[in-house]
């Protein structure tokens, strides 16, 4: 099948995304408005009959002092990754991006290679010889994903040994997901571990209330988020970023982004943002105060968000990134420990891949990013 690729309008791009069961929130046209510091372009793949069969949001970042660009497709493009003629999909894209002035292309195939269910992860945590998720035997392996990786390597795409291709992965390679398809809410609740169920009940008895907020509540979100940043030692995004995200995403779809608060005695103790694209729902950012933890606001909030995702007809509730460390002494271990309590699955994506269109500039930029 011969495919053609060309720039498409945002309307065409959105219509294609809306025709799919799901796609990454980073591949909707409005994500370009969220990442306003990047130049953007929507690409469409067309079959011989003229029907659109794929789409991709490209973000272009200019390198210092040179009019050349890093072209980035976060968690995309949205194409048939298992197509036998994968080269026919990606070669036109590379040619187009080179013509646009890109010196290198970075993409994140939305292809899951392995899954581990909660019992397997728990067994790994309890085994003193196991330090990484990759050391645990996977519950499910997708053979076609290995074929995709082999094809990409043969085409000249590069990936680091640890999943960090070139500039290292920007998006998480390991995520945690709660499957909702063909399950009742009661089954989902029963899948929680004993501690989670007890904490949800404790929050209910204490009178914790979970409510949705709006644009005007983002300042309160930011207050909790900055408390979290100090506690967990990361650099917080500014309030303007979340305001832009809310405005851009909800202008495209009024239910694309939601804001939740868990409060007790009128005081907001935790907060989270939720993103929705088709049947895929993400818990994208979380925040909490240093007080009130004894009433378990975060468990109550996650349960409410899960219930709302289920009511929306979601097939998966995605808790986003985790580290693959199962070492209790690792500062990121608490993240997987908290999420595994939902009874979901850890999933490993193929990771991000680079294609150097100009090897010298690619290497120089790689070095520049490594020293930042």
UniProtKB/TrEMBL annotation:
Transmembrane segments: none annotated. The keyword Ubl conjugation does not apply. GO terms for biological process: cell wall organization; peptidoglycan biosynthetic process; regulation of cell shape. It holds the Pfam family FemAB. The keyword Cell wall biogenesis/degradation applies. Keywords: Acyltransferase, Cell shape, Cell wall biogenesis/degradation, Peptidoglycan synthesis, Transferase. One of its GO terms (molecular function) is aminoacyltransferase activity. InterPro entries: Acyl_CoA_acyltransferase (IPR016181), FEMABX (IPR003447), PG_Glycine_Bridge_Synth (IPR050644). Coiled coil: none annotated. Belongs to the FemABX family. PANTHER family: LIPID II:GLYCINE GLYCYLTRANSFERASE. This is FemAB family protein.
